[in-house]
Design a protein that fits this description.
Low-confidence stretches: 5-11
Strand order of the largest sheet: 30-29-32-33-34
Number of strands: 34
Largest sheet: 5 strands, antiparallel
CATH architecture of the largest domain: Ribbon
Shape: elongated
CATH class of the largest domain: Mainly Beta
CATH topology of the largest domain: Complement Module, domain 1
Distance between the termini: 124 Å
Radius of gyration: 52 Å
């Protein structure tokens, strides 16, 4: 503390008197506190008004201190807290990025793909605890109507009204008018850039006159070129069976889809025995016309010599070829006449 001499006139005879008083030095104010007009020394009874530095606000305590007769300042309980802005919310379909919400801190706004930011891209926390700008909006990106290829059209995945903006993410399916074929991607989409994906082309496609198949016939007889997606039918003669699709179509390559073929029936070359055909047991002499069609199955009976029982084994007709199981043995005339000992007639395994 410091002592200062003060000269005073005292008594009726104006006697000069020197008095010494204690003064207060410049105070230590603490963090984030300031005072205007700071001096080197203060006399007892003088007050010093306190305030907060920029970016802080009073939280509690008296806003002044007093220099006491002892040369010591009264207790300083004045405190300042940082100015803080309310925590911001991200915009719908957007995001925000910030480190803190204190004074002078900044928040940055962005929008998700397919949305445009409308408003300020950033805001700063002001001295009064408000953000410098309102929360922006994220509006969907829109596209003009999708481009239509010549001889084509597009079907949107939802109803689009006339003069209505087409929002990001909207899709559609391209189609071509017959006899034109689509070349390119069938699906279109309004992208985040506000542009549609690549537009396909519609090209005219035709196929040459189709050829007949062996042992078969076609549903047409005229020799002409056929347009894309046109179809013709095939059939087979007599007991031949169609193997493959009945219809073929003119494809976008200008070629026909894969043709079927006609498969031959199989002769059943068994003279003696009993067979199973279409879930019926039939003696071979009663089986007419001694053939089965391609793909059909008949079963012959074999003997399990160890167990002394019979069992049915299937054989399938494959384009005129009927491969009988190796276990099958055609009985001799005498055994066949008796019949009771045949594998088809004894106890089944």
């Amino acid at each position: 503390m410091k002592y200062f001499a003060i000269l005073q006139h005292w008594g009726p005879f104006n006697v000069d008197c020197v008095m010494f008083v204690e003064v207060c030095p410049r105070p230590e104010l603490g963090d984030n506190i300031k005072a205007e007009g700071l001096q080197r020394f203060y006399n007892p009874g003088e007050q010093l008004v306190l305030s907060c530095v920029l970016g802080y606000k009073p939280s509690y305590g008296l806003r002044y201190i007093v220099c006491m007769n002892t040369g010591i300042w009264s207790a300083n309980r004045f405190r300042c807290e940082p100015v803080q802005c309310p925590h911001p919310d991200p915009p719908v379909n957007g995001q925000l990025h910030y480190e803190d919400t204190l004074y002078e801190n900044t928040v940055n706004y962005t929008c998700n793909d397919g949305f445009n930011l409308v408003g300020a891209r950033s805001a700063s926390c002001l001295i009064d605890g408000r953000w410098s700008a309102e929360q922006p909006l994220c509006e969907p990106v829109s596209c003009d109507p999708a481009p239509i290829p010549k001889f084509g059209l597009i079907v949107y995945d939802k109803i689009i009204k006339r003069h209505q903006n087409i929002q990001f993410g909207t899709t559609g399916t391209y189609k071509c008018l017959p006899p034109f074929a689509l070349f390119g991607k069938e699906k279109a989409e309004c992208t985040a850039s506000g542009q549609w994906t690549e537009t396909p082309q519609c090209r005219e496609v035709s196929c040459p006159p189709p050829e007949n198949i062996e042992h078969g016939y076609m549903s047409i007889s005229q020799k002409r070129d056929f347009d894309y997606t046109e179809m013709i039918k095939y059939g087979c003669d007599g007991d031949y069976v169609l193997d493959g699709p009945q219809d073929i179509v003119c494809e976008k390559t200008g070629e026909w889809s894969e043709k079927p073929s006609c498969k031959a029936p199989c002769s059943v070359e068994i003279r003696r025995g009993r067979i199973m055909y279409k879930e019926n047991k039939i003696w071979i002499e009663n089986f007419e016309p001694k053939q089965i069609l391609h793909g059909e199955i008949l079963s012959v009976y074999c003997l399990d010599e160890d167990k002394k029982c019979g069992y049915a084994t299937p054989a399938q007709c494959d384009d005129g070829n009927l491969q009988l199981p190796t276990c099958f043995q055609e009985p001799n005339v005498l055994t066949y006449l008796v019949k009771s000992s045949l594998p088809s007639e004894i106890q089944q395994c």
